[in-house]
Design a protein that fits this description.
The protein is built from 8 helices and 6 strands, in the order αβααβααβαββααβ. It is α/β, with parallel strands linked by helices. It has one domain. It is globular.
Length: 208
C-alpha cells in the first residue's frame, strides 16, 4: 500500500489530524486560473492514493479513503505578497512558523515536520506553465501521472539545524503533485530527507 507509514501514523493520532502543506500565494492577476491550478494540484495528490489492483481495492480501500479525506492544502494569501520572490516568501513563512500563526491549532497537523519544514510557493510563472498544459490537453480528463504540471516546494531552515556548504542552492525544487504523498512518506520525520531526495531544477521530482 502506498503511504503506509503515513496511514499508520494517522491511525495513532486524534480523529481530526490532517496532513499536507501550506500554500503561499504570490500572484493575484487571474483568480479563475488560480482556482483551476489549486484544484489540479489537490486532485493530482489524491490520484496517487488509490488502490493499484483488485487485491488492494478489496483490502485497502478504506485506508486510502482516510488518507484522501485527511489531506489538506492550506492557502495563505495576502495581496501585499503579490510578486514576492521565493526567498522573500520563505522569510514570511519562517516568521509565521516561529510565531505559530500559520495554524490556529498546530496539533491538528500530523507531527512529522512537514508543517514547519516545507511549503508550496505559487507565482505567475507557475500558473502560466500550468495553463499551457491545461489548455492544450485533448483528453477529457487530466492524466496526473504523465502530465508534468509542477508546484514549487520550498525547504525552510529549522532553527536547530545549521546549514552547510552542501545546502547551497537547495532551497527549493519542482515536484509533480502525483508524487507528493510518496515524498511525504520518504521524508517522514527526517530532517535530512530533503537533501537526500533533492532534484536540482529545472528537473522535477517524479518519484523515488
Amino acid at each position: 500500500m502506498a503511504a503506509s507509514r503515513l496511514y499508520n501514523q494517522l491511525q495513532r493520532s486524534p480523529p481530526n489530524t490532517r496532513w499536507g502543506l501550506y500554500v503561499y500565494r504570490a500572484t493575484y492577476e487571474d483568480q479563475s486560473l488560480w482556482e483551476r491550478y489549486m484544484e489540479y494540484v489537490h486532485n493530482a495528490v489524491l490520484s496517487h492514493l488509490q488502490p493499484f489492483d483488485d487485491k488492494e481495492r478489496e483490502s485497502d480501500a478504506l485506508r486510502y479513503q482516510k488518507l484522501r479525506d485527511s489531506f489538506r492544502l492550506v492557502i495563505r494569501e495576502d495581496k501585499a505578497w503579490d510578486n514576492l520572490t521565493l526567498l522573500q516568501m520563505r522569510e514570511i513563512f519562517d516568521r509565521s512558523s516561529l510565531l505559530n500563526v500559520n495554524e490556529p491549532d498546530p496539533t491538528s497537523w500530523l507531527t512529522c515536520g512537514m508543517d514547519r519544514w516545507y511549503f508550496v510557493y505559487v507565482n505567475k510563472e507557475t500558473l502560466m506553465d500550468f495553463q499551457a498544459i491545461d489548455d492544450s490537453r485533448q483528453a477529457p480528463t487530466p492524466n496526473y501521472l504523465k502530465e508534468e504540471v509542477t508546484f514549487i516546494i520550498v525547504h525552510t531552515q529549522p532553527g536547530w539545524r545549521e546549514p552547510d556548504d552542501d545546502d547551497v542552492g537547495k532551497e527549493w525544487q519542482y515536484m509533480c503533485g502525483y508524487w507528493f504523498s510518496q515524498f511525504y512518506e520518504l521524508t517522514y520525520r527526517d530532517s535530512d530527507g530533503w537533501f537526500t531526495l533533492f532534484i536540482r531544477p529545472p528537473h522535477k521530482w517524479n518519484g523515488y
